[in-house]
Amino acid sequence: MIHVIAVLTAQPGKRDELLALFRNVVPKVREEAGCIAYRPTIPTGHEIANADFGPDAFVVVEAWESREALSAHSRAPHMVEYGARARPLVAGRTIHVLEDA
Fold this sequence. Notes:
The protein has three helices and four strands, in the order E-H-E-E-H-H-E. The chain has 101 residues and is α+β, with helices and mostly antiparallel strands. The chain has a four-stranded antiparallel beta sheet with strand order 2-3-1-4. The radius of gyration is 14 Å and the shape is globular. It starts with a strand and ends with a strand.
């Protein structure tokens, strides 16, 4: 299984707008072959947390059956369209791709 942790940072004050665009594409992604999990999350502020992503960031938690499924996801037409629409709202992103040990 492939896991992805993607930290998306919006332009200042634009997180809600970027999240709205992201949430619109989630149902299409969940229908993709090999998608096990795909959801946006935001920090809880829990006392054991040691990562402060900031007020403009959210974290996408993903799970895929294979590397091939993840690769196909990045080329899916709805993701290409999302990327083009989201680009002006994104200040930065960090993507971690992991596999089971």
